[in-house]
Each structure stands twice: as C-alpha cells, then as structure tokens.
Amino acid sequence: MTLFLSLFLLGCTQMEEKPNVLFIMMDDLGYGQFGVYNDTLTVNGFNPFFAHLEDSLQGYSKEKALEFTKLAIPTITTLVEHGVLFTKAYTSSSLCSPSRLGIATATLQNKWGVYTLEDAESHGLVPGSHLAETFQQSGYKTAHIGKWHLGKHDEKIIPHILKRNGIYEKLSRRTIRDQYPDVYKEIENSGYLGSVTNKQNPLNNGFDYYYGYNYWASQFYNSTLVWENFKHAGKQEGYNTDVFTDKALDFMKEKVNRKEPFYVQLHYHAVHDSLEPKAPDLYLKRFNSESFHLNNFYAHIYGVDYNINRIVDFLKKKGIYENTIMVFTSDNGAMAAGSYNGDKTGSPLPGNAPFSGHKGNYYQGGFRVPLFIHWPKGIRKSGIMRNMVSTLDIMPTLLEATGLSTPDRLDGKSLLPVLKGQFNDTPHDYLVWSGIHSSAWGYLIEKTTKTHTTEREFAPPAWVIIKEDYLLRFTGKLEPGIYLEHMAGREPIMELFDIKNDPAERNNLVTEMPEKVKELSRLYFEDSHSFLPPVQWNLDKWKELKASKSLFN
User: pTM value?
Assistant: First the structure.
C-alpha cells in the first residue's frame, strides 16, 4: 500500500510538473505597432507614402502614434522583459489563412499548393497534420479559442436554408443576397460564414474544446460567426476580446482544478479590419490624442494586453505561472492603411515600420512579425534573439519544451536551444516564400487603379529568399493599366537588398552583387522543387514563378 501510494504521488507530481502552454496570436498586428521593438524607431523611420496618406486622411500626431505603441502593452512589455524576444521573426505567408496553416503544421503551406487565401480556404487542414494532436495524445487537455480559418465552410447549411424557404435551385450567395434578402439574412444569422466542416473542425484535429470562427474576421460585438464545438453559438454577447479570454480562463480553471495539463490556443480577432467599432471605455480612456481613429486602434490592442494580464493573475494565483509557456505572435504584417474603398479604415502608423509594405505583399512589412516566448521555469536567461526564426518554429518548440516527440521532416525547427541560453543559435540558414504580391491590404492600394476587392486578381506573383542579411525577391510581370507607376506594364524584376542596413528595401543591389543573386536563387529553386501547383490561384502566375528559373541559367 505504501509503495502504491508513493508511486501514485510520484505520478501526480510528474503530471503537475508538465508545463502548461498558452499560445496567443493576434490578427494583423504590425512590427512597428509592437512597442517593445521601438526603442530606436523615430517618426523619420515611418514609410513616407503611408505617413503622407495618414496626414491627408486622418491628420493625427505621428509622435502620439509612436507613444501609443508602448502605452498599449504594459503587461506584454513585462512578459518580454522576462522572456526571449525574437527581433527577426517571419511568418510563412503575408496572408492569414496560409500563415496559420503553416504555423499549425510546421510545414511550408506551398507544399500543399497553398499560396493565397482562396487556396487555403479551399484546401484547408489535412486531417492528422495539426501538431496539437500530439499534445492531446500525450495527455494534455486542449482548446482552440478565437480565429481558426483553417478549413472549408459547411456547405450543407445554405441548401438547407433555401429548401426551408421553398427554394430548390442552386444559387450563389450574391444572387441570394440580391433576390432574397430575407433569406440571405437568415444565412448570415445561421453562422455559415464562421462554420467549418466536421472533418476540419478543431474537435477532429487535436482539440477537446472549440469556441471560435472559421473566417478571416469576426465582429467585435454581436457576432453571428462563432461556433462552440459543433454547434452555432448564436449571437455573441459582449466584446469578443473579453469573451474569448473568458472562455480560455474557464477552460484553464477547469483543467487546473482537475490537475490536468493544458494546451490552449487563444487567437484573438484584434486587430483585423475593420476597426471602426468603438473599443470599450475601459480600454479607450487610456489614450488621449485628438484622433478617435488612433485612440481606438490602440485601445483594441490594450484590450488584448489587459486580458493577458487577467490570465497572468490567474496563473499566479494558481501557482502555475512559473511553469506555463506563453507564446505571442501575429499571423502577418499590419493592414497598414488609411481609408480604402470609402468605407473601411486600416490600421494606423507606425504600421510595419521600419519596414516597407504591409499584409498581402512580400516587402518585409508583410511577413516580419512580433514574436516572444515567456517561461520562467524553462528559460535559462531572458534576452533577445537576433537571428532569423519563423513562426513555423512555434509548434516544434512547444513540443520539445514539453518533452513530446516531434514528427520528422518538418520545416519548422525547435527554438528550445535559444530558450536555454544559446542566443547565437541559427535554426535556419535561409527561409523561402512563394505567393501573391498584392497591394490590396494596405496603403499601396492608393498606387493602383483598382480597389481592395479587385486588385488581387491582377497582383503579380513573387518569390523571396532571405539568407543572413540579404533578401532576394522575384516579382512577376505587371499588367498594363493597373499600377500607377507602371501604367504601361512592366516585365518581371529581381531585387536584392541588404536588410540589415536597408530595412526599408530602397537600394537594389542586383547589379552590384551578381554572385549573391546566383547563390540565393539556386537555394530558392532547390527548395521550391517540392511546391505543388495552386489549389485555386491563377495557374499561369504560378507557372511564371517556375519559369523564372530560366533567368539564372
């Protein structure tokens, strides 16, 4: 009996010693909007064209914008100071769903033929590929809360609603909206846009609990997109940053009380467009510029920080703060823009400063993102990692840190050596990207004849490779009449930048460093050999990327 009791207590101790995991991801949070990076950033480092647009459209103080990047994240700043901050972190795509697919699987999504939002939404998650399954199979209790965006909608919903209304023909959503507005409203209220097929539902892909939406965004208030497990959650009451945190805390409380380790993904809606809805006064009153737009945007960020503080207080109260791994990142760069299409407002300065570009394109601003890891018990020395890492590395890191096995042949690498103090570690010799190089999701739309909705159809393809301090980018052919600076069109181009000394990518070194161009292009084509044709993206654009190899022969 004594021996049995000793073994039982030992088993409980070992279980309690398993690190808990909380993976927090924001939506479209830009590098420059994350204040911990801004100790040396000044308003002179803002993108000139973006700053000019904001002056004409919004007219707020640039200095206030920079100040608010720090004012918005007091809790996060403290966590960073006691964790590891990654200053050269990249996502695998400049768009949300492809990026999230890469993160979930630690596999470059191009290997599944995913390059665009439409590819990701049509293809979705391959059953058995989400690495959360390893946590679930190893005794962790798992939850996904917030944005999913990893699968197809449940297409059974619309025909069912049509039949209920006596409509038996197959109609597009646009036709339904135009001809049967009441039926269209019923479809909206059904949760269709936030739905996901059972096959790709989190509950069938490594999670014990799901409260979220399978769409690019969800309204801050009164959302009808949210589902709980396999059921539509109806109209969501409250402010969704608060609600998502409530759900995460409820799940964690239950598991802690049962002494069960947890793995929780808390993927907030903030700060995806559109940000016109007013943040709760609790968060808004912290910001006092003359611009509601500026105050409101950073209030939404502060809402996330405030809720993270609620979680930190809970972890400390339960005595598990020291042994909880917290990861924080964004899915891609900021949707940095003033008004576009006349009815929406993208996010304000500093946007992705000091980098050029924004969400949807392959300037650094589109895919260089905030990233830090906090784990008091496991991090040997807090500090800054300046070598290149990828959000593909998040899941392998969490698996190894919790003592779990990692599948072979992943593109992501474990960053555990960095957490153990090896800040000179180089997880990747280089990284590659391939996809759409679009102006649709930010201020560059103002340099086109198209709109946010229509430009992406004409956007050129691009591939990128970064090795050490050099970025090589191929951009495909520009069609005539689309881009104001190239109204006659433009042939494909190659650009090489020293991103250490030229982070805004203004000085093209292609003609000065031909050997570097050859070296990097060779590495890209070696890697891209395994990339599949796109699921939905224009096949000719993908073939243009493949054909670009001839430029180096």
Answer: 0.95
